[in-house]
Structures are given as C-alpha cells and as structure tokens.
Design goal:
Arc Repressor Mutant, subunit A
C-alpha cells in the first residue's frame, strides 16, 4: 500500500464506501476522487486492488444499536498475563451477548466494546472477562446511545439482513433473493439511507495491510479541555488519523496509520507536546475481531425482519 491507497482507505473509513445502500456507485467514486485529488479511474482500480488483496474483507451494514434496544456502550482495555490468555479471552468475548467489537494489539493488550440496555449492562461483558481470566480492566470510554429517530419497517430489516455482510450486493440480486421488485428495493434503500439508521463500513483485515501500520493512541487529557485537546491533536496529527473517539469518560482515542515502526512512538511524542495532555500510549493493531456470523445483532435483525418486536435478550447474560 502507498499513500494514495491510505487516503482511499481513510475516505472509506470516515464516510462509507461508494456503493452500499446507495443507488449510484459512480457518485460515490466521484466523491472520494474529488476529496483526495485523484481521478475516478485511479480510485476505482486501487479500491478493487484493496478488495482483491483481502485488506478490505467485505462491506458491512451496521444498524444503529439504539434501534436494537441498546441504550449504552462501554469500551475497556485489558492486559493479559501472556498471549495465550489474551487469545482465549478474545475467543470467550466473541461468543458473548452484547459484544460489539474487539481490538487485538501486538503483545498482551486487547480492547473490548460491549453494548447494553443500560449503562450498568453495557459493562457486563467486560466484568465477565475480567472475572473469568482474572484481568485488570481500564475504562476506555462509556457513552449513552442517542435514540435514532429512524422508523424501519420489517421489509427494511429484510433488506438490511440480506446486505448485512454484503453491503455492495447488486440491488437486482437483493430483490430476487427477497422476492421484491428492483424498484421496491431501490425505493426502500433510499429510505433506509435517508433515515440514518444504518451505516456502512469496510471490514478490514489488519494482517493484510502490506506496509501499512495501524495503531491507536490513547490520550489522557485534562477534563475541562478535552475537546480543545482533540481539536489540536487533529490539527497536528490529522494526516495520519482515520478515526477518532471521545466519550463522556475515559481517554481520547485516535486510530491512526503509519508506514514505519517508528511512527506510533513519534506520534505519541507529538501528542504529549499538546497543552492539556497528561499521558499518551501507543498500541500497534494486529486484528479487528467481531462476533461470528449469527451473533446477537444478526438474531435481532432477523427478529425485526420477521416482525417480532418483543423483549430483547439480556445482552449481558452468560
């Protein structure tokens, strides 16, 4: 991967792929091309190569968690005693209700994000991991999920279910699979997109970055100045940032990319120079792990697609 590939990846990560719950693929390619100063053909060729090489595994349709009954999300960082324990803990997390995503970093560190129907339940997964494997956990952020105003019908959820792990599926194929007309699918996709209830993201394989180093900076800052600190970090490090996260509590998280092993450490040093920053650590990403297909999110989507809107399963049940 070179600098142009990185810029295309960042455009995808920040604003979504050019063909996913969107009627016109060409307009999406044009948007990315204009944003990064390349021609459309170059973007198209490079994007296809990222897909063919397996760096982008697939495009996933992710419904707003509030539409699934979740009201809170919590992220915690764990430090295992050894790599074997870390991997066992990650496999345990993947099988649990409420697991949204886990980040596996080089060494013995990993991060887990869980959701729940209350702030207390959102930490249930982390508590179970810590208890089962006798691990310390460090809060990385908790947030209350705003209720998404989208009102999706069962037919919308059927379309989302079909496109869940193939968000670039041709609309004709979606229509045929669901027994709908292409016109109906096109209309419902426009409504889904306009509702803001579903986002599309490229699911990447961090092990296939081919020269790209993905890493996370965890920045502790003075509470009254956290937004100002984030703005300054974005100004100084913006060319290497592809995602940011700042919750009500916990550190500021910057997901970044580099091309040399020195980049994570040098970025941490630059972050420490920002006024208001108290501490900063850098972790090199090895893998992004999701719950396996057929997980609690998939099951809830299937329920909504079938018109079943009853009680949710307890997301922190063992």
């Amino acid at each position: 991967m070179d600098a142009h590939d990185v810029r295309i990846f960042c455009a995808l990560a920040i604003s979504g792929p050019p063909e996913a719950l969107v009627p016109a693929r060409r307009s999406g390619i044009r948007r990315i091309a204009l944003g990064i100063g390349l021609d459309e053909k170059t973007v198209r060729v490079r994007l296809r190569r990222l897909e063919d090489e397996g760096f982008i595994k697939y495009y996933q349709a992710s419904p707003d968690l509030s539409l699934l009954g979740m009201t809170a999300e919590a992220t915690h960082r764990f430090e295992a005693v050894n790599v074997a324990t870390k991997l066992e803990a990650l496999r345990f997390a993947e099988a649990q209700l409420g697991m949204v995503e886990a980040l596996d970093f080089l060494g013995t560190t990993f991060v887990v994000t869980g959701a729940g129907t209350s702030p207390e339940e959102s930490t249930g997964l982390q508590k179970r991991i810590a208890h089962r494997f006798e691990l310390d956990r460090i809060e990385q952020g908790q947030r209350v999920l705003r209720q998404c105003p989208a009102r999706l019908l069962p037919v919308d959820w059927r379309i989302i279910e079909r496109m869940r792990y193939d968000a670039r599926a041709p609309q004709g194929d979606v229509a045929e699979a669901l027994g709908l007309t292409p016109r109906m699918v096109r209309y419902r996709l426009r409504r889904i997109r306009a509702s803001g209830g579903v986002t599309i993201r490229p699911v990447i394989d961090a092990r296939r970055q081919n020269g790209l180093i993905l890493y996370r900076l965890s920045v502790t800052a003075e509470s009254p100045a956290r937004q100002e600190v984030l703005a300054e970090l974005q100004r100084r490090l913006g060319d290497s940032i592809w995602a940011t996260r700042i919750a009500l509590t916990g550190p500021i998280l910057l997901d970044m990319f580099g091309v040399t092993l020195a980049d994570p450490e040098e970025s941490a040093v630059r972050a420490l120079e920002v006024k208001g920053v108290q501490a900063c650590s850098a972790l090199v990403l090895k893998e992004i792990r999701e719950p396996p297909h057929g997980n609690w999110i998939d099951r809830r989507i299937a329920d909504l697609a079938a018109g079943r809107t009853g009680a949710l399963p307890d997301p922190v049940a063992a």
